Amino acid sequence: MSSYQVDSARMKKDLATLVAINTENPPGHEREAAECLEGWLLTAGFDLSFSEYAPGRTNVIAVLNNGPGPCFAFNTHLDTVPAGSGWASDPFTLTERDGRLYGRGACDAKGPLVAMVEALRLLAANRQQWSGTLMGVFTADEEVASEGAKFYVRDNPPAIDFAVIGEPTSNATFSAHKGSLRPRVRVKGVTAHSGTPELGINAIYQSARLLGLIEEAHHQQVRCRCHDLVGNASLTVTRIHGGHADNVVPDSCELLLDRRMVPGEDEEVVKAELQQLLD
């Protein structure tokens, strides 16, 4: 039996290393973080491969084949949201304060990533106690469009029987998740000089009418669809942009919608409902 023990000091050091690597998305650039993981997991005995859907946008796939049995995977992501402002310390320097660790990604999701790497080390060191395939699937671009995950599944990877997903959940375990659709809606009008707006059709005004319909659909149709584990479905507007000059009636206005689906909803049905709303 292996005498391997979880090394908390090493985990903290690993987290500091990853936090210091800026993977804010956009633009992402996860390659350096991927190379960091490569060194750690090769040492633990895993076969490592990278896949890139664009230069520098790197997925890490670690595999340990250990005889017949199910495939178990750890999965989280390498990118973070932008650091923004208002930090009490450098967001790219891991800082310990009042028993907590602070840094961009310390919670979402470089902290879970470091915990998963340590779990992979532990399981690899104790492989005589289990049989099957162990994987680490660490993807790029989770925070924006999940292009890394899409690229991974496009290559027909091996079937995974069980998976643990690393996201901040306040140490609660969840076995379900909402889905997401983010359609862009372009509302058309007719341009005119702003001094004679009656000669045109203002696309922003047209969009304002649509905003009311979207809000009504959320309250009356969408949010009543609930799931015991993830709560209610939702529909909202997250971005709006229209116009290109101060003295021109805009002939176009673009909205970005966010439709969160709960387990049991059908994506194609939801798309049809959105199309009907827009029609």
Automatic annotation (TrEMBL):
Cofactor: Co(2+)
Gene Ontology BP annotations: L-arginine biosynthetic process
The entry's keywords: Cobalt, Hydrolase, Metal-binding
Domain of life according to the entry: Bacteria
Pfam (any one): Peptidase_M20
GO molecular function: acetylornithine deacetylase activity; metal ion binding
Keyword Hydrolase: yes
Keyword Coiled coil found: no
Database matches in PANTHER family: ACETYLORNITHINE DEACETYLASE, N-ACETYL-L-CITRULLINE DEACETYLASE
Protein name: Acetylornithine deacetylase
Origin species: Klebsiella variicola
